[in-house]
Amino acid sequence: MRLLTHNMLSCNIKGVTNGFPLIIEAEKVLEKPVDLNPDFLRNMFHKVEWKALVDAAKSLGYSELPESVDPAMLESPEFLHRFHHALLELHLEEGALVCPETGRKFPVNKGIPNMLLHEDEV
């Protein structure tokens, strides 16, 4: 699971009001090279919750993202490379996503998060 995906997921258990961002418990992390596409990154920049991305990247062992950002940084090749690496090349292969409010764990196996709810959570 890429951090791009993680940045879009939240806990949808009935009654949960603070289900984003999900906490990552990583067991296995992979780096999978992807061609850099600056236009894609510039378009996604405004859709990404930055603090959630920084925290998620740190939980996968990557701490090269700045804590705060400015759209002008999108002109920096170094920033684009770091943003690209965190967003698209880091993969949570095995582990869990944890709801910050309830502590419910959603397993991630072979890079696929299982976000299915139990009957009593709907």
From TrEMBL:
Q: Which GO terms describe its biological process?
A: rRNA (guanine-N7)-methylation; tRNA methylation
Q: Which Pfam families match?
A: Trm112p (PF03966)
Q: Which InterPro entries does the record associate with it?
A: Trm112, Trm112-like
Give this protein's Gene Ontology molecular function annotations: methyltransferase activity; protein heterodimerization activity
Q: What superkingdom does the record give?
A: Eukaryota
Provide the assembly information.
Interacts with TRM9.
Q: Which family does it belong to?
A: Belongs to the TRM112 family.
- Kindly provide the name given to this protein in its UniProt entry: Uncharacterized protein
The species is Punica granatum
Taxonomic lineage of the native organism: Eukaryota, Viridiplantae, Streptophyta, Embryophyta, Tracheophyta
